[in-house]
Amino acid sequence: MAKQFDVVVIGAGPGGYIAAIRAAQLGMSVACIDAWSTADGKPAPGGTCTNVGCIPSKALLQSSEHYEQAATHFSEHGIEVKGLGLKLDTLIGRKDSVVKQNNEGILYLFKKNKVTFFHGTGSFVAQVDGGWSIKVSGTSDEDLVAKHVVVATGSSPRALPGLPFDEKKILSNDGALRIPAVPKKLGVIGAGVIGLELGSVWRRLGAEVTILEAMPDFLAVADQQVSKEALKAFNKQGLKIQTGVKIGEVKATAKTVTVPYTDASGAEQSLAVDHLIVSIGRVPHTEGLGVETVGLKLDERGFVVVDDDCRTNLTNVWAVGDVVRGPMLAHKAEEEGVAVAEHIAGQHGHVNYAVIPSVIYTSPEIAWVGRSEQQLKTAGVEYKAGSFPFLANGRARALGDTTGFVKVLADAKTDEVLGVHIVGPMASELISEAVTIMEFRGAAEDIARICHAHPTLSEAMKEAALAVDKRTLNF
């Protein structure tokens, strides 16, 4: 006898588990299916983000930053460190502990909100009376019937053609989080978020890191001024970043990975490394979902086709997160999960895609929301720009981290904030003020008139907003 639910969510990543919890809060009977497992076979909900993405990478970034601070910067504070050593297994173990805490936290939230969790792979069987027949294949198989189904199956790392991940020499984000020893030489293909963050981790721990990027410009997705400032900082740290390269046929042996490539000048080059991280993007994960069985429509790139409200072509079937269009960001998936649950409940869920922030957790951190200067110019939008350097910020000086700046872009006539771009300390936290202002369609003057505590990094946001009107007070 099939178990009946109002909503069945397939996938317990940020989009899936949040959709399940919100639907349960709204009074629906909810089940969530997820196949992630720990090394000992226990459930590990949280998807890529919790298990091999956002959470473990931030744990390693934190640990590696402590190590680098102790090695190179503590002396500035009069702190002497003698006999500094690195226990990599302890460092990796701490990362695993952080992941486990998050896994267990999600299972607790399911229990608290009365969401029924099934450990296994969920797939469509057929449309039936009462909704959709869903099969769970796991430690024990289950048959479910759902009035509504939310597909939240996430994404998988994209491999180079003819070069599958073995997670020993050729690494995805997964293998890059658990290299057993600090490599002497590490190669990274792709200078996006994953490449920069994981490259930074291993550089801080002592590896010589070379990042090869196919695009002619570094971090073209960000504001040009921000990208230039970040590149300057990364080069100073010792990250070797080459753009405009064309990768040849990579050869991997038990000891070495050889990467032939053509550099931006057209010269033939070769890079020999101990490990190679391939971070050239991610692809939607629909394998085993039963897409063909029920006729769930995918686009030419394999994404589940949805409308503005995340409805698919099938009645009462929804999809959120990395498996649909839009930025592959955990917080975007969460917002879609909430919106879908509210739509199912007859409410008016909504996601404002224009104000979804992007963050890169390197040092300096990089964060932005809204449009960049180049995007505004291309669109022919008249704007005003104001920026303020952390070099002139008292808290940044006290922290000993004055790299970067805050830039505010506002409409030339209305003063509405159109974009905010930050490179510098704690950019990931500072960007939230900009998101809030833009969500309420606030003006640069609004930021400038708000009292910011002193001394704080957030004062740089206030000063950048003042700079839009050419009236900074501290620069």
Automatic annotation (TrEMBL):
Enzyme Commission (EC) number: 1.8.1.4
Cofactor: FAD
Record: active site: H454
Compartments (UniProt record): Cytoplasm
UniProt keywords, alphabetically: Cytoplasm, FAD, Flavoprotein, NAD, Nucleotide-binding, Oxidoreductase, Redox-active center
NCBIfam families registered for this protein in UniProt: lipoamide_DH
UniProt-listed SUPFAM superfamilies: FAD/NAD(P)-binding domain (SSF51905), FAD/NAD-linked reductases, dimerisation (C-terminal) domain (SSF55424)
Domain of life: Bacteria
One example of a Gene Ontology biological process annotation: 2-oxoglutarate metabolic process
SS bonds (residue pairs): C49-C54
Cross-referenced InterPro entries: Class-I_Pyr_Nuc-Dis_Oxidored, FAD/NAD-bd_sf, FAD/NAD-binding_dom, FAD/NAD-linked_Rdtase_dimer_sf, Lipoamide_DH, Pyr_nuc-diS_OxRdtase, Pyr_nucl-diS_OxRdtase_dimer
Pfam families assigned: Pyr_redox_2 (PF07992), Pyr_redox_dim (PF02852)
Origin species: Pusillimonas noertemannii
Miscellaneous notes: The active site is a redox-active disulfide bond.
The record's free-text note on cofactor binding: Binds 1 FAD per subunit.
Catalytic reaction equation(s): N(6)-[(R)-dihydrolipoyl]-L-lysyl-[protein] + NAD(+) = N(6)-[(R)-lipoyl]-L-lysyl-[protein] + NADH + H(+)
Protein name: Dihydrolipoyl dehydrogenase
GO cellular component: cytoplasm
Residues annotated for NAD(+) binding in this entry: G190, A191, G192, V193, I194, G195, L196, E197, E213, G281
Residue ranges of every copy of the Pyridine nucleotide-disulphide oxidoreductase dimerisation domain listed in the record: 356-465
One annotated GO molecular function: dihydrolipoyl dehydrogenase (NADH) activity
Residue span(s) of domain FAD/NAD(P)-binding: 5-337
Family: Belongs to the class-I pyridine nucleotide-disulfide oxidoreductase family.
Positions contributing to FAD binding: K58, G122, T153, G154, S155, D322, M328, L329, A330, H331
